[in-house]
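Office hours follow-up: a student asked to see two folded examples consecutively, so here they are.
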Amino acid sequence: MRKLVFAFLIFASVNASADTPVWTTRDVNLRERPGETADVVAVADTGQKLVVIGRHGRWIHVRYHRRTGWVTRTEVETRADAPAAPKSGFAGDKVSDATKVTVTIGKVRGFDDPKTKATATLDLKRGDVVTVLGRGDDDWLLVESTAGDVGWIPAVTVTDGGPKGARFVTDPRSVKSDAVTSAVSAPAEVAEPPHAIGMMLAATAGAQTFAMRQTGGATGGDALATETGEAASVAAGARARITGNVWGGAGLDAELGAGDLIYQTASETSQPMQAKSIAIDARGELAFGPSWMIAARGGYHYGSLAITSDRTDAMLVGEHTGGFTVGVGGAVPLGRRAAIVAAIDVMPEGVQAPRALPAGILYGTSMRAAWAHTTLSVRLPSHLIAALSYRGGVAEISLTDGQPTPTTAKRSDQIHTITAGIGLSW
């Protein structure tokens, strides 16, 4: 998943020569318009060459392969083999001449948004000198500390930051993308598409354990089947921006497991039997999020269990399961390179069918299940990602043999899988 950041930025315009190359000094998000809350349209790794096609205050309009986007001047550098474009501070001044103000009260807290004040991004004290980046509504200033932290503070907490309207522009949230790009327009052949698209493909491997506990049946006692073994999974997904911060997506996860299963009752413990399982989950998502993300999910779950055994016990003939699922998911960025993705899916009514139907076999009349899934991903160079995943599930199944005087049983399942691996993200 692409990382997104939380700060809101404001800008002033200044033209620059086009087709000037710069190089990224770290992993950089290219944004649809100036402002750190703007949608990410591409990601450039450290050391990548970008072509400058315009400037707007502290933001630079660049072309990267066949995409264009906006980056801040502190994220790139010029090199000796390229003509150096003069860096500019606020309102086009040189960096050394950028507007600076001094905090005049005991303590000041800066926020990501001057309206909601949802997240504190910096703490200042009396005497701190900060650089003014812009002015927002209700006389709030966007400032940058000497440590590079950015946040909105009230203008009354600092020395004079200049007359409103003379050196400052309006809040970037009120500036439309087309208005920004019209000031320094990109060539038509590299214009951005109306929707941003992202794709992911990952393969992981690890360990799995599951247990099936049955109560009732012909013997009226309890039976337990447990398996521990290897697991592997493949995950693929794609998403596209519908409008603004609303996204639509689809995904497919396939998980395979293999190991030795042991069957236990009050009177016996079996020898290990080979068991193989597969679980496939297909889903669609509708998500919202500017930096974090929350999604409503719907899909279908299919599961299969095969056991190498000649026994006719209900849990030892193998089975197929399936049903529609609904759920919620979300993602939270952790810094510039990592993110946590989590989801909970519920199958409110599913089916269970044995692989074989010997006389008197118990089969499912109803099945309910739920799964929780979380992944920690870290973005690596060259579109690679490293992923560590956990998936846990529970199920409850009502069983019967279908006779006029039926024998019934209840079964509860648990499964836990941990995998790690690598993938690609575009």
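And the second, which I mentioned at the end of office hours:
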Amino acid sequence: MSEEQVTGEIAGANRLLDTIIGHLKAGDDSVVVDELALLHYGEIASLLEALSPELRQRLWDLIPAQIEGEVLSHLHEKAQASILFKMDDEEVVAAATVMEVNALAQVIDNLSEDLTETVLQSLDEDHRQRLEASMAFTEGTAGRIMNSDVISVRADVTLAVVLRYLRRFPALPPHTDNLMVTDEAGLYLGSVAIADAITGQPDVRVSEVMHSDADWVTVDASEQKIAQMFERRDLISLAVVDEGGMLLGRITVEDAIQIIRSQADHALLASAGLKEEEDLFAPVVPSALRRGLWLGINLVTVFMAAWVIGRFEEVLDKIVVLAVLMPVVSSMGGIAGSQTLTLTIRGMTLGQVSKTNLRWLTNKEVLVGLLNGVVWSLVVGIVTFAWFQQMGIALIIAAAMVLNLFVAALSGVLIPVVLERFGIDPALSGAVVLTTVTDIVGFLSFLGLATWFLI
């Protein structure tokens, strides 16, 4: 999709949102219902997430009951929870009965124990068993997100038998590009493309056209690994097996897109100390509480930088111009470090950073930092001399900038690696740590050199 197409899609979504909000405020419920009838479940969910709590509830009340489950499954966690909180128990149960197992497993996490039990009792035996099996797996793993609606065939049957078998289904599960091949006991052997099954000679056996090297993952595979496989291998579906190789289900490209979107949201919001399920239109008090923690942590780091500045009160009193130039050094270091930090975290997320190439990456980023430090220190030094006509200060700020950009580049690589080894999410806390380091090193190097040479 071109940039113009993307821009057009966004503009269209904005116009739709403005239209819906206008009709809701005007009380034109019938018009809104007609608009909803033209939209996909995901588009309706996106509209709900873009509304204030009052209008969100108004729109939800206009959504047909038969599609409530589908819409719920497309909502982010916090927005989903805000809807569920105001739904009647009977309404929740009705929505749950039409939801897919992996989507229902996410909704169950937002329900009370009593309501969860009510929902489970309302499901038919097969649906309940599949849901309980899904919830037995750890959240964020293949077992939790897989679909059990997988069509499997035996390797020793002919394609004619396969076609007769497929005709028994009223419709194939979405994104069925392959048929999974198993033995009599259910052991996964590979897959056969549905196109090959349809166009192949009827008397050919599945074993002759199947791909025994087809991709698969175990139930404990992480979402990150799954997303990487879909991205790198252009998959539409992926088999999921247990530790013994028995076929349990599959993951589709739709599931992979949701994982990739969630990871992108996490990386963007975590850089600001927020969680990926943050609801843009959540009430004021909960939003303030969620964000307050990181503001407090940032305040501690600011006081640490202020304490460093306070150690050089004497030199600041004598040479006031230093106070004017201090932000230059720390800001340049912060920007340079953030660039390296972002690239490193992205590389770690994509599995591109390991012990074997970490040293090379560190050396490369340090050299980049030193090169930029030398170039921009000359620029800053020349500007400082032209501004204040003091060669000593110009040389000192140039030296401090080289030092800070060197430390920023080194920290940008090492901080996320160290945080991950301690089990801390680098995307969530890396920026705070990096800012602290570049501020302290920037102030310490600039004011320290000024004290050493000018006092």
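Two things to take away from it. Residues 355-388 form the longest helix (34 residues). The first strand starts at residue 152 and ends at 154.
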